[in-house]
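Q: Okay, next protein. This is TRAP dicarboxylate transporter subunit DctP from Candidatus Magnetoglobus multicellularis str. Araruama. I've checked the sequence twice, so it should be correct. Can you predict the 3D structure?
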Amino acid sequence: KAMLLIILTGFLSPVIIFQAAHARMGKRYLRMATLAPKNVGWAKNIRKIMHPALDRVTDGELKLKWYWNGIMGDDTDYIQKMKSGELDGAALTPTGLLMACPDMAVLLSPFLFRNYDEVDYIRNQMWPTFDSIAQKHGFKILIWADQDFDQIYSVKYKMNTWSDFQKARFAQWNGIVEEKTFAALGVTTVPLSVSEIFSALKQDMFDTYIGPAIWVVGSQLYPIFKYVNPIKIRYSPAGAVITLNVWKSLPQSYRDGLVDV
């Protein structure tokens, strides 16, 4: 019995200390990471709109602590750090979102959507299903956002003929659907993570990229690309998730607040 008491005390002491610390602080902070720079429009809206709204619905008791601009790595790192407990959540590009919910890959099918009205309809119909799938992988989807419709950018080619596609070297960064599409086309690809794209382009490892305009501008790549084909080749979702363990640990009022925000 004495040994059992010692073991239980060893396991429970950190929990008691953690809860006591939070009680003294009076607030709970969720550690969130993102590739987005702190001063892009999306990040400003998080601070100006989401944070005050969250304060209202939780009486200022639940806060989001953000690690901006990729200082905690890229989407792959965020997923790993959420699983290890180093992060509570993250705002993700399509790459990370598909790691949290692989079935959302269908949304990236080329030419699936023509406009945001069609996206909104599918979002309303499918969010509960995708969220349920994400929970089976250990995540809760808080936000399903629109990153943009992706366009084709190139340093060397206008990308309006099949010959251009055959000559181009594409950055392959956006998951399984992009990988399979490129394979079907038989084009040359260079597999990269999001965080590697900027340096790889500078080193001439690839010359053509399919992605959202907001990222091309925000990452300062637009002076390098000489051509853009503005066709809306695919829809590009983004999202914010937290771990299911963190979600279940929150009081119901906090959960309701996060959903309402």
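A: Here is a summary of the prediction. Confidence is low (pLDDT under 50) at residues 1-25. Strands lie at 28-33, 62-67, 89-92, 139-154, 169-172, 188-191, 208-211, 227-243.
Q: Noted. On to the next one.
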